[in-house]
Description:
Nucleotidyltransferase, domain 5; 8 helices; about 40% helix; MULE transposase domain-containing protein; MULE_transposase_dom
Amino acid sequence: MTDMRDKHNINPSYNKAYKSKDYALNNVVGDSWESFKMLHAYFHMLKKCNPGTITEIKADRKNRFKYGFMALEACIEGSNTVIWQIIVVDATHLNSKTRDVLLVMMCKDGNEMIYPLTFRFANFECSKSWTWFLKQLCGVILKPELLLIILDQHTSISNGMKAIFPDAIHGICAYHLANNL
């Protein structure tokens, strides 16, 4: 709206500016909902080009996208051989019409750099989605009993951790704890 006003002396309403932006984005990158239909093909090619990669898609009863999981073979191999079994779990909300959530698990390598382990996206963050994600992760980690998992205090994550990794040590993220205080 500011660009239109400053560059062209036009004052569009918020609704008109939003619809115009949405229309332009759909023409450039495509519709957000339609992109999920291409996920099966993308995961197929990902596994074909990266043998050992694990992908999974879960749909609801009407065959609509619900959850997606991806662990690249190089990340799996590295996390099971050279990376400490300390995993940080967090989520972020994606900025799209679909209001999806990106859930990530990562470690730190020997150079103190962030090492991605798995990615998961879901239509929302809840105990069922986290439990599904953690079940997929369980198939990736060789020694789940040696894990130290650091997470925020989100109830959904805690519920999933207790159900899938009951013997793993759970810790609270100091950053999230400080922000909550």
